[in-house]
Every structure is written in C-alpha cells, then in structure tokens.
C-alpha cells in the first residue's frame, strides 16, 4: 500500500466492491498523514458512500462531502475545514474540473479546492550551502543586505543568496479511489486531466474499480499511469454465482413499436397480488412519467398516493436550478418509477419484484440509437440488472432481438447447450428462417450486415476500434506525420470519443441490446440472477374478430393524431416477419395475398373511410389513390402532386360526345410517360400494392437485360392504366362507342374534377 502505483481492481457487481473500498479507506486512515479521496460518477453515490463509511465505523467528523463545495455551506467549503477531514467523497467531474456543457470553467470554490487543498499538504525546506536553514533566518539575512545597501555602518556581510536552495517535500499523502470508472469516461478530456497534476507531488496511489470495463476505460487507465510512475497492478476477482442468492429472471419479448402500458400493468397486478415490493426502472424519462401519471401509477398509489415516487432527472438544459440536493433520488421505503437508479444504488428490499423496461423497437435508429439510460449498451444492461441485491424476481420487457448467426460455437457451451440455445433463440428472434426465404421471394430487401447480431467478446472492442482508427490515421494523419503531430494523443482521444460510434456498428455489443440481453441470459452471465423463463405473445387473427383486433393493435401502436397507413401496415408486416402473427391458427407469411388484402381492407375501411373500401370487399389499388387524394398528409404531399398530375393528364384527353364524357379504352392512347416513376413511388409509400400481389413486381435490378427492363416498364404502365381508369371514372363495364377513329368508353362518374 505504500509505494506509488496504479491499482486496477476488476470485480463483479454485488461481489464486494464497496466492501473492498471501505476496508481500503479504513487501512489508510491508520496513517494520520494520509488523505483519501473517493471519486464517483454520480452525486447519489456520494450520499451512498457517506452512509456506508459511517456504518463501517469511520467517524463522521473525518468525512468531507462534495455537496459542501458551494457558497451556502460556508464555512464547510473553506480550506481550513477541508484539511480537518481526511476522507473526501467527490464526483469525478469535480475532481477533473469538468464545468459541464454550458460553462467555460468550473466554479471558483471548486477551483480553490482542486489547487489549494493539495498545495496545503506540501511543505518546503531550505538549505544554505547544503546545510538546513529556516525561512525566518533567510528573511533576517535578506533584511541585513537591504540595510547595508542603505549605508548602515554596522551591518554585517549577509550570506550569498545563490547558495540558498529550496526543496519541496510532502508532509501528507493522498490516495485516489475511482469507483465505477466506466461511467466517468467523458470527464477525462485532455484539458480536464491537467487538473490531476495539482496532486502529483502528494499522490501516493490510485485505485480504479469497476465491474464493467470497456475500451475507453483502458485509455483512462493509461492516462492515470502518468501520475503513478507508469506502473499498474491488476487485481481480478473471479465472477462466482451464489445459488442461494440468485433472483429469478423473466424476459418478456414484445415487438411493438412502443410498449403498451397494458403489459406493464399486468406485471404490476401480478406483483401486487403476490404481495411483492415493486420498483420500475424505465429506459426513458418520458415513459417513466407516463407510467407514473397513468393507470400503472394509479394502481400503485391506491390507498396511499405518497408511497409511489417518480425518480427522473431534474436537470434543465444540463443545469440544476439550485444548489440544493436533488429531491427525486431512489427511496428504499417507496415504490420507485424512474430512470436514475440504473446504477449508484443497491436495492435491498425483501421479496422484491424488479421491472426493467428496455428500449422498444422504435428507438432503433439508422445511425445512433435512442436507448436513453441504456445508450451504453451491455454495460448499462449489466449495471441495471445488478441493482437487485437480495433474492427476488427481475422482469425485463424488451424488443425481440435481431437475426443471430450461429456459425461459431459459443464459448462455455456444450454441444447440447448450444443446440438448445439455437432452438430457443430462433423462437424469439425478430426474423425467422422461413421469413428470410420469403424476403428474397417477394422482393423485400434481403438482410444486410447491420441486421445480423453476432457473438462478440468484450475484449474484441479494442480490435473493432483499432481497425477503424488505422483507416482514419492512414487517411488523415499520414500527410502530416512529419509536422510533429501528437499521434498518441489523437489515438487516445479517438478511443475516448469516436470509438463508441464504431462499436455501435457491432450489433451484439451496442446497437442490438435485446440480443445482448438474450445471449447473456441464455449463457447465465448475470451474477445476481438466473433465467427462469421467457415469453412472447402471438396475435391470432380470425375472420370474425379481425376488425376488433385491428382496432386494438392500432390504438396500441399509434400515439400521433394522424397516423400513417404505411407505418401501421409495415408494423403488422414486421409482426408477420417476426412470426408473431397467425391467421385462423396458422402462421402467416408475407406472401399470403388473401391475408394481406384483408388486412389492408380492414385498415383502410376503419381509419380511412373516404378511401371507399369496405372491410368485406377485396382490396385494390384504386383504394390507395382515393386515400392519397382525399387526405392531406404532409408526408404524402409529393405523392399527391404526382397522382394529381396523372389525373390532369388523363383529363386532357377526354372528349365530349352527345353530352357525355369519354376516354380512349386503349392504353396506347393514354398519357403514361411518367407511369413507371409514379408506379414505383406508390409502391414505396404503400408496399401493400406489391406484397398483396395487386401489382406485379416492376423493380429494375442490375442483372436485368434491356429486354427485361422494357417488359417491367410496360407492366408498370399496365398497372397504372388499369388503376386510373377506375379512379378517374370507373370505365370498367361502361358503355362504349367508336368515334374520332378510336374505341371510347363513357366516363360514368368523374371522382376528381380537376
């Protein structure tokens, strides 16, 4: 414990990390010349450690808290008061002078603490010609020199100032303890790290502790080495499950775009019926607030409105409006619904029912996912699950994982276990093997690299980032290598900031958190719980219940006032692709024309009555044209303009004959120059046109011959012609005449006079 070295401790959640820190503090306090600074990522952890230290026998008058570094706590924020207490608990952003996103520099009180406190622990001794001399004697000799220069006759010859040397030595030592270092990475910018050098002359040792290290953590560890003679001592604790302390893990898979409150309410009702203690951790602040204010909150508040607490951030634009402690922290005596207890607290409730709401499918974006408190991927997942410290139940609601590649044997699995893993995973993965065959058959874009989850060990992070970094250096830095560019600083900063974006491309590590949860649960990787069971709900459509089911799904899926037919139709198509939907007891495929037409008819008749379709009739393409023309949706503006132009072009070739309006009956006589483009635009907005086999596939592929391309263009023209002759005036079955050298059909009723 005495020599300067960085000590890295890798220890699982719930396996004694806090105990290790407390005993370390206790040991160092035996030396009256040692100060201990515990740096944590969250203010909530400051309070937790304050209580833990006192419980462990550390006198309260030996402890200094981060919250006292503000003007309201004078004289607690004075240097004199700080020096009296040898155990300091601060946040990492305070210790590294992080002013946040909306300030150029941290407060004066914190700056004085970071500079004044370590300086006060240093003493300086003086030597004259190699022999000790005190500061007071030096001053007297210097005064004599001044007197002699003024002409005082009796002044004796003073000493040679050049022989005076100052030697600084520390009379006190400081030990840093960084806890949950993975959650404080963002603080270690090149400019913030400079604040740590105030402590270099008094620093005895640095401890870093975490249960979930990542690649960025390694960069921080190396940076701190500069303060500790470049030496690192690694202590790893084996992850061991204690069967008697394992909670039961239940995973509830749901492919909804947004999780319905009904599902959460069902879980709460089950917990209340069993007399369980309840807490609900949500992926987002807005979802937590909806639960708290809605039916779930009302159910939990029955009999005592004050027993439920909303625990979400109070920050406005990343700034706290007062210097007071936040009031919405986790309360062990209440039912907590919120976001701010993913880490930093231990849930010690007996008979506990812990509900974790993971991000739903709508949070998966093209580039960076909107996972809320789970944006850190598997690290946030592990930390959240580990909050429950006593035997109970953990219920996780999550989206279905993406398609998984089973090309490689999973580590730590026997052949039998791997077979069972593959069978179970295929039941709940988003894309079924059968569907993947249909994807090619019916023209849906095939699964790309980004749609497949792969097993990836954590150690693979550095390789993923390094490969990308090599490309960046080759492209960006090679031309200026001879200009003394600090390449290593560039590499470190890249891994701290941009490296996460590279990891997002890896489905298992970050972007597919559902796959990560599933694989970890199936492989029994959680220390505090073991998978009990998983479940998902299939929707079975039947002819007699079809309209009611569409209504129910619609209400659950949409939140906006003007829902999009395309969005809803594609949502149900996804359900089909996920093999989560059946029709009359049989699994439905995306190539089931009868079902897809029935589906489209029910949606249009129920929510878009002006489309003119009845739930009991066959769906056809003209219903889509009616929908486009009669509803003014912003996202359909361009499409509506194109359809209108086509109708006007048709109107331009109408002829009056004997007080009636006629149109040519032959396709060759119609203005269909833009038919191909219009055809593809309609299919893009309403895939049902192609999926339900109403229109034939006319998409040109790179391998198509010129002859085949021309055939597809003519097919598209035919589709547009057959559709618009019904839309414009229902020419089918209309009386015809021959005049003007053409066969003409009478327009029965013009739907859209333009």
Short synopsis of the structure:
It contains 27 helices and 26 strands. The strands form 6 sheets. It has a 7-stranded parallel sheet with strand order 3-4-2-8-9-1-10, with helices on both faces. A 7-stranded parallel sheet has the order 13-14-12-15-16-11-19, with helices on both faces.
Q: Topology of this protein?
A:
Blueprint: E1 5-10, H1 17-28, E2 34-40, H2 43-55, E3 63-65, H3 79-83, E4 87-91, H4 92-95, H5 108-120, E5 122-128, E6 131-133, H6 135-149, E7 164-170, E8 173-179, H7 190-193, E9 203-210, H8 215-225, E10 232-236, E11 247-253, H9 261-273, E12 277-282, H10 285-293, H11 295-301, E13 308-311, E14 335-338, E15 352-357, H12 378-385, E16 392-398, E17 403-404, H13 415-428, H14 433-441, E18 452-453, H15 460-477, H16 487-497, H17 499-503, H18 507-511, H19 513-522, E19 529-536, E20 539-541, H20 546-557, H21 565-577, E21 581-583, E22 586-587, H22 593-607, H23 621-630, H24 637-651, E23 655-656, E24 661-664, H25 675-685, H26 688-691, H27 706-729, E25 736-739, E26 742-746
How does this structure look, described?
The longest helix is centred in the last third of the chain and has 24 residues, at 706-729. Helix content is 38%, strand content 17%. The strands form six sheets. The protein has a seven-stranded parallel beta sheet, sandwiched between helices. A seven-stranded parallel beta sheet has the order 13-14-12-15-16-11-19, with helices on both faces. It contains 27 helices and 26 strands. The chain has 754 residues and is α/β, with parallel strands linked by helices.
């Amino acid at each position: 414990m005495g020599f300067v070295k960085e000590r890295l401790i890798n220890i699982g959640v719930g396996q004694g990390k806090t105990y290790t820190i407390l005993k370390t503090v206790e040991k160092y306090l035996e030396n009256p010349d040692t100060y201990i600074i515990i740096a944590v990522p969250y203010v909530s952890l400051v309070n937790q450690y304050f209580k833990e230290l006192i419980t462990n026998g550390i006198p309260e008058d030996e402890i200094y808290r981060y919250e006292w570094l503000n003007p309201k706590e004078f004289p607690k924020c004075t240097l004199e008061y700080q020096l009296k207490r040898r155990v300091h608990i601060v946040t990492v952003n305070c210790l590294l002078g992080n002013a946040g996103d909306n300030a150029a520099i941290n407060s004066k009180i914190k700056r004085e603490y970071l500079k004044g406190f370590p300086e006060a622990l240093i003493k300086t001794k003086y030597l004259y010609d190699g022999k000790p001399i005190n500061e007071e004697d030096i001053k007297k000799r210097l005064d004599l020199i001044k007197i002699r220069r003024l002409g005082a006759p009796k002044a004796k010859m003073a000493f040679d100032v050049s022989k005076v040397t100052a030697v600084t030595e520390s009379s006190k030592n400081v030990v840093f303890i960084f806890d949950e270092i993975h959650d404080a990475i963002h603080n270690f910018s090149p400019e913030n790290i400079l604040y740590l050098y105030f402590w270099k002359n008094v620093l005895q040792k640095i401890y870093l502790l975490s249960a979930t290290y990542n690649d960025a953590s390694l960069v921080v560890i190396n940076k701190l080495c500069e303060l500790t003679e470049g030496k690192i001592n690694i202590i790893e604790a084996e992850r061991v499950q204690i069967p008697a302390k394992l909670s039961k893990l239940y995973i509830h898979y749901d492919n909804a775009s947004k999780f319905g409150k009904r599902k959460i309410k069902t879980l709460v009702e089950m917990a209340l019926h069993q007399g369980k203690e309840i807490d609900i951790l949500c992926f987002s602040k807005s979802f937590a607030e909806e639960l708290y204010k809605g039916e779930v909150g009302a159910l939990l508040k029955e009999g005592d409105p004050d027993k439920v607490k909303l625990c979400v951030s109070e920050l406005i634009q990343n700034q706290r409006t007062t210097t007071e402690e936040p009031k919405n922290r986790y309360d062990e005596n209440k039912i907590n619904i919120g976001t701010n207890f993913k880490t930093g607290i231990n849930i010690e409730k007996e008979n506990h029912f812990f509900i974790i709401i993971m991000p739903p499918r709508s949070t998966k974006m093209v580039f960076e996912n909107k996972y809320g408190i789970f944006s850190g991927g598997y690290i946030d997942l592990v930390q959240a699950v580990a909050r429950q410290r006593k035997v109970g139940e953990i219920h996780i609601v999550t989206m279905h994982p993406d398609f998984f590649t089973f090309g490689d044997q999973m580590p730590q699995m026997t052949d039998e276990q791997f077979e069972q893993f593959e069978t179970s995973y295929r039941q709940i993965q988003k894309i079924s093997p059968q569907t993947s065959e249909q994807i090619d058959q019916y023209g849906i874009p095939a699964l790309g690299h980004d749609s497949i989850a792969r097993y990836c060990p954590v150690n693979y992070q550095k390789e993923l980032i390094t490969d990308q970094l090599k490309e960046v250096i080759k492209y960006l830095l090679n031309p200026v290598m001879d200009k003394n560019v600090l390449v290593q600083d560039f590499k470190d900063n890249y891994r701290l900031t941009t490296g996460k974006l590279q990891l997002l491309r890896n489905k298992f590590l970050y972007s597919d958190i559902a796959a990560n949860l599933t694989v970890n649960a199936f492989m029994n990787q959680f220390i505090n719980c073991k998978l009990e069971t998983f479940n998902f709900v299939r929707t079975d459509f039947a002819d007699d219940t079809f309209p009611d089911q569409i209504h129910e799904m619609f209400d659950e899926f949409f939140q906006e006032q003007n829902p999009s037919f395309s969005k809803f139709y594609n949502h149900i198509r996804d359900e089909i692709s996920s093999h989560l939907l059946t029709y009359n007891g049989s699994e439905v495929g995306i190539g089931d024309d009868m079902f897809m037409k029935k589906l489209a008819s029910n949606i249009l008749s129920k929510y878009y009555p002006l489309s003119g379709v009845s739930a009991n009739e066959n769906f056809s393409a003209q219903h889509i044209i009616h929908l486009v023309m009669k509803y003014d949706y912003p996202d359909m503006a361009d499409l509506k303009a194109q359809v209108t132009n086509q109708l006007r072009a048709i109107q331009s070739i109408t002829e009056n004959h004997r007080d009636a309006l006629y149109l040519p009956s032959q396709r060759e006589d119609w203005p269909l120059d833009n038919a191909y483009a219009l055809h593809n635009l309609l299919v893009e907005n309403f895939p049902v046109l192609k999926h339900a086999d109403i229109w034939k596939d006319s998409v040109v592929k790179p391998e198509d011959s010129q002859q085949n391309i021309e055939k597809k263009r003519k097919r598209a023209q035919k589709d547009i012609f057959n559709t618009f002759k019904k839309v414009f005036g229902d020419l089918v079955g209309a009386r015809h005449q021959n005049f003007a050298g053409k066969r003409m059909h009478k327009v029965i009723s013009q739907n859209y006079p333009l």
